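Quick note —
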Amino acid sequence: MAKYPHMLPNEVPIWERFLALYGKDFKNFRYDVHVGEGVDPGKDVPEKYRQLAKMLTQKRIDAVAERNGEVWIFEVKPDAGLSALGQLLAYRQLYRRDFKETRPIKLAVVTTKVNKDEFWVFNQHGVVVYEVGYI
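Predicted structure written out below.
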């Protein structure tokens, strides 16, 4: 099993660099956290395959951790763009609903680099940007 399930090979070094720099600030890391209902292929499909299809089509959060009574949701992407923002905003709502989370949920993108416009937009939505540079 992969060390960080669901992360792509080009994302792992970015995440490991983040952990080396900031990992000590967080605890209780979880990876490949499934949220959302997924897609049900219908009652004509045998139940075991329906459940598998739903699981495989759920959204997957790269990493979730805790810090100072808050839940942190991380999206890891090289050269993160605004698609990461959409993912994070959706993950927060789905995580809150699925896990009945009442603590504050913080969002963070871990990336090699973001441009100024995207950094500004992330900031406007309260998303913390961790730029770890190119590895």
